[in-house]
Amino acid sequence: MIGLQAATLAGMAPVNNCLLENVWISNCHFHGKFRIAVQVFCGVGDGLLDGNLPLCSGNEVRNIQITGNVIENSFDAAINIIAASLNQTAATVHDLKISGNKIKHGIWGIYMTGCEPVIGCGDNGKVYNVEISDNELEPTENVGEITVGIAIQAGRIDYFDGTSCLDSSVENVKMVGNTLRKMDQGIFISGADILFDAPDNLVKNCRAENITVENNAFRDVKEVVVIAGSQHEGRRVDWQIGYPPHEKVWGELLENDDAITCKTCDNYVKGVTVRKNQIDGYRYKYRVSGLYGLGQGTGCGNFCEDILFEENQFERGEGRISVKNVFVDDRLHDGGGNEVKNIQCKKQ
User: CB under 8 Å to 123, separation ≥6 — which residues?
Assistant: First the structure.
């Protein structure tokens, strides 16, 4: 594994305004059972999850190239990009190029988020100006979860409770000339995501904006492009299909299924263009929803706006398109104001 990190916390004093820049990872071969093969984030370190981290601010990673590598057998994400994590605010990752890599991945091939706190807050994290081009992505067999080629989530809360992710973003991302094979979802874009349901978890005012998906090839991908203002994964219940108890329950089930627990509010995806892609073998061409998912929690005021699908070519598919203001299952509550606005499909 290679980790690019602007700041590392050695004690309990805050680490602020650190900069990591001008790093090129090229022509490497990553082979082995990695959780993550290449990680790019602003810091501040692992193993300090005792709830007493100081608040760090202003750390930055910029001008990074990850090109021409072979990455095999990562069981979480092959390439993982996070701006604000572990009680950070105003962290930025920008001007990245990820090109010409051959990737065999677990859950995610390439994943990026402006904010993913596992402790404390991750407010005002930003990832922007990213090129993802000419990569080959395919998941390994028997991953055990939904597999995704390229994922963009403006704000995300992972495994812990008592965390918040506010005012974070992923912007100006171009995905061009990539080949994605044999996965559940090709491209997933969301304003917010909550993995684990806990009463104090909140994702609010996060956005994914100005994203282009053009001239890519999708081969045997079940859902080609999925866009959601907000997604809830609901790990209090079963980790894959949303109904207890099955194989894995992450937390105690609630006695009252109507309880309002974690929240996603006022997050959005805006300005996405999906153009001139080649799709061969699929179930859904597109899924677009203001609020999407399953598990406990509530979502309100989340939306998708200005989405364009144009001149994409399809073969061997079921022809399905799903556009809904709210697409939820299980115990997820529609808190109102979740919607899809101004979506266009041209010359399909």
Answer: 84, 89, 90, 115, 164, 165, 166, 167, 168
- pTM, two decimals, is 0.91
* Averaged pLDDT for residues 57-64: 92
Distance from chain centroid for Cα 151: 4
Instruction: Please give the helix or strand (H or E) that residue 226 lies within, else none.
Output: strand 223-232
Residues 338, 297: contact at Cβ < 8 Å? no
State how far Cα 132 lies from the chain centre: 14
Within 8 A by CB and 6+ apart from 141, the residues are: none
Q: How many CB atoms lie within 10 A of CB 5?
A: 18
- Chain-centroid distance, C-alpha 212: 16
pLDDT in tens, 205-235: 999 999 999 999 999 999 999 999 998 876 5
Q: Cα 202 vs. chain centroid, distance in angstroms?
A: 16
When pLDDT is cut at 50, 70 and 90, the band that residue 157 belongs to is: confident
Residue 66 has pLDDT above 60, yes or no: yes
Q: What share of residues in the chain are helix, strand, coil (percent, to 5)?
A: 0, 60, 40
CB of 321 closer than 8 Å to CB of 260: no
Residues 136, 174 contacting (CB under 8 angstroms): no
User: How far, in Å, CA of 191 to CA of 304, rounded?
Assistant: 9
Length of the chain: 348
